[in-house]
Amino acid sequence: MTSGGTLKRRLDQLEASSLIERSVPYGKANKGHYLKVVDEYSLFYLTWIEPFKSSRAMSRGRNYWANCAKSPAFLSWRGYAFEAVCAKHVDAIIRALGLESTALTASGWRAGAKAKTRGAQIDLLIDRADDAMTLCEMRYAQAPYRLDRRTIRELTERLEAFEAATGTREQLLWALVTPHGLQPGLWSDDGEISSVALLDAFR
Description:
The protein has helices spanning 5-16, 40-48, 64-68, 72-87, 90-96, 149-166; strands spanning 20-23, 34-37, 103-111, 120-128, 132-138, 171-177, 193-197. By secondary structure, it is an alpha/beta fold. The chain has two domains: 5-85, no CATH class; 90-202, 3-Layer(aba) Sandwich (Trna Endonuclease, Chain: A, domain 1), CATH 3.40.1350.10. It has a five-stranded mixed beta sheet. It has a two-stranded antiparallel ribbon with strand order 1-2. Helix 2 (40-48) packs antiparallel against helix 4 (72-87).
């Protein structure tokens, strides 16, 4: 879209209405900010109503939504919606992780893909006063979350990408934000996840 007064005014209005949220990624000062849809109904509408409102998809019978809820698109949307809820409760996440006395700043971080490296993103990064950073991963699950080899590899790659991009020498610790906690198991007991925040903390 062409930038200008009208676009800026529209974005400012959406932000003032709490439909979108502006964030400045870690290490970007006041430049390079991102705008993200955080209104729950807007997320639902843009994914499940707007694309189909001019078609017959919405009138395919009472099982239409039940079938959608089994699709990969639904799982992706559900995860994004959970991240939006978490973004509104950063203070509660900090309390649940026991970081109230040490947390300095909270922000996200992302790096675009380059010729020899893939892009990487960290949902929430809590910079602390004790020479450490807590990197928070948001994962929605309907039961205690089960860590597996693939997830551990993804988290390791993101941590390494963050270290390479920022040159930080602080201790980096992963925390998991998930509704029902972490399921005991081989990968959850190896120390990769240092702490867990539950959805109950948002109440």
